[in-house]
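Need residues for this backbone.
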């Protein structure tokens, strides 16, 4: 076996496995300036090791008093890099938008009122045990076996990073929360309890001004949305102006279940960035495919692995995380003489308790930290579309903060039209693509997403016409093409209107199923983002489907 080529970092002189050359210029500008301040001759082209990047970033955030106490013991980007990427950094999200003034409802297994959502200011407006409505708030101040999942999803979305001094904050750290617990004492999440939670939202959403519902869970059976009480209630809430986000699940051989299968619920799949900013996004084993009703899901993908999430306080896992990080900070002398009682409280094999080889013992502690994923005493990294969904919910809170009057349909259009199509992942797995928060925000701020007279396509049976709409401020010409006109380009020309809204009206077509797209400026084919019915076009994109019955 050939040895890995060793490289020397030009700044610290350490021998490392690789250097970093690419950076998020906007997000890491101050870090780069700090590096150049101390090393005037250095440029990005010279490269830098992960340790040096972490050192200068640490120096900066220490000055701002926001750095957590996280040890350099978790090799995740390369053997030389330490810390799990904060969600805001990996998304390249705009930190000026924090979800302030927006209420997100989480329907999940259970919850613990974690410091990341209550310590700085208590942003929990209401917490309800759907399975036992008499339960008071005190119950949620203590950890329970069903608390894990919901605690992690809420903090991933809306935590303010209190336990990490601000580093591991969510996408919407100022959003307010309504928490609905649906796991019963037997550890089951039933269709009935999910439905009761949605009914609670339907009844109370105006009182708490709920704008988003996050559902990192699903029903047990893949059925038609027409036969699902969960889907029926979800669509009612969307009609009330509430955007619903649902995880598709983590089995790429499984069918899509309610509520992710519902036509207007935004279903979220996952991708893997290998915890590297410069890495090409890879596919994650999330569920995908055609629902019982013929709809392709998911609509979007977001990061679903290497996500920083809280370790539930008051648990054996939290105690072990604290001990492991206490041990790894010990001097060699203390580790050799005073570690036995602490080691017994960890998952490290008792065979290593009395070893005289301190270096070996330290390596076992680090291995245990890596195995448990406890990269600090307060946080671990997790994976699953359960955590991709709240990332998207947080982005939607940002959009609503920028423009509170947005409708669920406008939010869908902004997210879908700004998503990045990933060339290395089949279109069926990624939907419209990878979420891009800044681009979606830009569409909102530039008012590129406005109200349409009707959703597209709009069938008028009385007038026997079909109207198609698309919004594009920059186009000079847009035409409609599809199987109904043999994909003829530049024949069915659309008419431009105010605010970049383009429209065309055609005679009602005979009964049948038709494929269509919009052709922009003779160079770009675009699907109809208002139409949830679509199929792959064979070119890693989508054809929109029009059904005349």
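Answer:
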């Amino acid at each position: 076996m050939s040895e890995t080529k060793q490289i020397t970092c030009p700044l610290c002189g350490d021998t490392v496995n690789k250097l970093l050359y690419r950076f998020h210029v906007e997000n890491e500008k101050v870090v780069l300036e700090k590096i150049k301040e101390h090393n005037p001759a250095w440029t990005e082209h010279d490269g830098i090791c992960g340790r040096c990047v972490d050192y200068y970033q640490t120096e900066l955030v220490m000055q701002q008093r926001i750095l957590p106490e996280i040890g350099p013991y978790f090799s995740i980007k390369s053997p030389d890099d330490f810390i799990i990427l904060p969600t805001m950094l990996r998304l390249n999200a705009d930190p000026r938008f924090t979800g302030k003034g927006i209420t997100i409802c989480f329907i999940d297994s259970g919850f613990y009122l974690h410091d990341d959502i209550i310590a700085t200011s208590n942003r929990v407006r209401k917490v309800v045990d759907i399975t036992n409505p008499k339960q008071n708030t005190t119950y949620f101040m203590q950890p329970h076996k069903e608390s894990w999942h919901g605690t992690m999803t809420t903090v991933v979305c809306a935590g303010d990073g209190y336990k990490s001094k601000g580093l591991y904050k969510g996408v919407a750290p100022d959003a307010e929360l309504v928490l609905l617990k649906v796991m019963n004492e037997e550890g089951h999440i039933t269709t009935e309890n999910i439905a009761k939670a949605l009914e609670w939202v339907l009844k109370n959403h105006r009182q708490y001004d709920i704008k988003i519902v996050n559902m990192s869970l699903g029903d047990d059976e893949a059925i038609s949305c027409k036969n699902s009480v969960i889907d029926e209630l979800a669509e009612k809430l969307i009609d009330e102006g509430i955007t619903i986000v649902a995880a598709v699940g983590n089995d790429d051989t499984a069918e899509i279940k309610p509520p992710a299968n519902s036509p207007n619920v935004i279903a979220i799949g996952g991708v893997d960035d290998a915890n590297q900013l410069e890495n090409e996004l890879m596919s994650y084993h999330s569920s995908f495919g055609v629902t019982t009703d013929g709809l392709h899901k998911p609509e979007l993908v977001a990061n679903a692995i290497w996500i920083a999430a809280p370790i539930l306080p008051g648990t054996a896992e939290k105690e072990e995380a604290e001990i492991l990080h206490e041990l790894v900070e010990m001097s060699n002398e203390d580790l050799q003489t005073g570690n036995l009682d602490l080691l017994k409280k960890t998952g490290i094999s008792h065979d290593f308790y009395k070893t005289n080889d301190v270096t070996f013992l330290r390596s076992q502690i680090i291995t245990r930290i890596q195995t448990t994923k406890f990269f600090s005493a307060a946080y671990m990294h997790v994976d699953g579309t359960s955590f991709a969904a709240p990332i998207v919910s947080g982005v939607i809170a940002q959009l609503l903060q920028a423009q509170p009057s947005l409708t669920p349909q406008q939010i869908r259009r902004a997210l879908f039209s700004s998503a990045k199509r990933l060339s290395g992942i089949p279109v069926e797995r990624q939907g419209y693509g990878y979420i891009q928060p800044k681009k979606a925000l830009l569409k909102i701020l530039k008012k590129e997403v406005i109200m349409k007279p009707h959703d597209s396509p709009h069938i008028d049976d009385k007038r026997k016409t079909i109207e198609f709409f698309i919004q594009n401020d920059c186009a000079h010409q847009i035409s409609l093409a599809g199987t109904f006109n043999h994909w003829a380009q530049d024949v069915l020309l659309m008419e431009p209107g105010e605010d970049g809204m383009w429209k065309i009206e055609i005679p009602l077509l005979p009964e049948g199923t038709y494929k269509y797209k919009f052709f922009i400026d003779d160079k770009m084919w675009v699907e109809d983002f208002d139409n949830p019915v679509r199929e792959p076009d064979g070119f890693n994109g989508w054809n929109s489907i029009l059904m005349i019955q």
